[in-house]
Design a protein that fits this description.
This protein is α+β, with helices and mostly antiparallel strands and 123 residues long. It has a single domain, classed as Pantoate--beta-alanine Ligase, Chain: A,domain 2, CATH 3.30.1300. Helices cover 45% and strands 32% of the residues. It has 2 helices and 4 strands; from the N terminus they run ααββββ. Strands 1-2-3-4 form a 4-stranded antiparallel sheet, covered by helices on one side. β2 and β3 form a beta hairpin.
Length: 123
């Protein structure tokens, strides 16, 4: 007579546990990778909006033909529903007909996102 256990085939408990462990590690790595992609997309959106703020402020200075005095001033900007704070630093250059303008964009929390610089001529 045949042994009933010998003819039945299946997975042992150890094999099932190993397969579940492999699956858990794989899913964990996938979740971590997708989380990193989401954070990178949010950061890219934030940096693009900050770049637009800086560019808009410098373009406004150019279009109004403003020749700002040396010093520092602040301004506010809103892009894509987020509020940013800008700091404009104007410095004299060796040529009195030009000024260096640095625009730094800060997040709502107050940390620096980017700085854009240009040189403005006296019109």
């Amino acid at each position: 007579m045949k042994d009933l256990h010998a003819s039945s085939r299946g997975f042992t408990l150890v094999e099932v546990l190993v397969a579940l462990a492999i699956l858990a590690v794989t899913l964990g790595a996938g979740v971590k990778a997708s989380g990193a992609l989401i954070l990178n997309a949010q950061r890219q959106t934030q940096m693009s909006a900050a770049q637009w703020c800086a560019d808009n402020h410098l373009t406004e200075l150019k279009l109004t033909r403003a020749f700002p005095g040396a010093g520092q001033s602040e301004f506010a900007c809103e892009q894509l529903g987020a509020r940013y704070r800008g700091v404009r630093r104007t410095q004299n250059t060796p040529n009195p007909n030009f000024r260096r303008v640095d625009v730094q964009i800060l997040s709502e929390e107050g940390y620096g996102l980017l700085t854009v610089s240009t040189v403005l001529p006296r019109f």
